[in-house]
Amino acid sequence: MENSKEMRTWLDDMGLDHPLVIAGPCSAETEEQVLRIAHELKDTDVNYYRAGIWKPRTRPGNFEGVGALGLKWLQKVKEETGLKTATEVANRAHVELALEYDVDLLWIGARSTVSPFIMQELADALEGTDKIVLVKNPVNPDLALWLGGIERLHTAGIRKLGAIHRGFSTYEKTKYRNIPEWQLAIEFQNKFPDLPLINDPSHITGKRDMIFDVSQTALDLNFDGLMIETHFDPDNAWSDAAQQVTPEKLVQIMRDLRIRKETDSEAEYNAKLSNLRAQIDILDNQLIDTMGKRMKVSDSIGELKKQKNVAVLQSNRWNQILGAMILEGESRGLSEEFVLKMFKAIHQESINHQEKIVNG
């Protein structure tokens, strides 16, 4: 997959003056619902109308999609609105049916990407197709697994390829449904800068009120497009209700997003600067998150010291940490002065946390 430029041709040929937009309901529920949403999206920036036909659910008993019946509804969408269509496929049977009903864009979900066996089955089923195929990142943050799935498709002769960044699962409680791990997406771009990369803020956030901010970050990082789940009555959607927006809200999001175009050297400079600043913002947020986690551990140490009536300040331990961090900092290009100042501040905050608990 050395020449990824050929995989970008399908996107360049569209000649868009805005990011690629894939939108529609998480799940196709009824024919009326599918067509109503499509008609509300047909005169917007939406390029592909998405709807989940087969829904992989974490546990049995939840709504698992309407199945092949929904493909007929997608056909009607294309006939009545002119919108191109998109859906997820997870096995050979799905692929064969989607191709039979002339779905324009197929994506492979995060639960499928984790398995090389599934990816090979899908690659074999799609061999030689001229359809666009997008691959979501696996549920776990494994860049090699993500790239490996795309490489299997490329080896099968599929050239209209791209990737979807939908975040990564975690046991930790965060503000995201799936943590974005932006650095991994940035590394993906660095390895294959010409491979189209789409952001899925719906699955990253799990909350509709966060979709704009994540979408803006993605565009600042030079993502090529967005996949946003859209429903005329999101609160009553049959799946993932909290993360879907109305068609009106989608239009507003696209209107409010700052989209930077590289038309001259100054614009190119501004775009690169915005990209680097977006990376700094991501790392700053990760620093704050890490510091918060560190202080929670300090709180636990404070509880333990209180039980054993041990002094908060342990000088030997502090000197060990400081010496080790100065050496680690030097190996990463950080001055001793900076490391000292930073860890003295962290140490003081840790002492403050523990003293509150011990004295409380």
TrEMBL record:
GO:BP terms for this protein?
chorismate metabolic process
Q: Which SMART domains match?
A: CM_2 (SM00830)
Q: Which residues form a coiled coil?
A: 259-286
Phosphoprotein listed as a keyword: no
Q: Read off the Pfam families from this record.
A: CM_2, DAHP_synth_1
Chorismate mutase domain residues: 267-358
Question: Which domain of life does this protein belong to?
Answer: Bacteria
Name the PROSITE patterns for this protein. Answer: CHORISMATE_MUT_2
Quote the EC number: 5.4.99.5
GO function terms (MF aspect): chorismate mutase activity; transferase activity
**Name by which UniProt lists this protein:** chorismate mutase
Which organism encodes this protein? Answer: Zobellia galactanivorans (strain DSM 12802 / CCUG 47099 / CIP 106680 / NCIMB 13871 / Dsij)
Q: What is the lineage of its organism?
A: Bacteria, Pseudomonadati, Bacteroidota, Flavobacteriia, Flavobacteriales
**By which gene is this protein encoded?**
aroGH
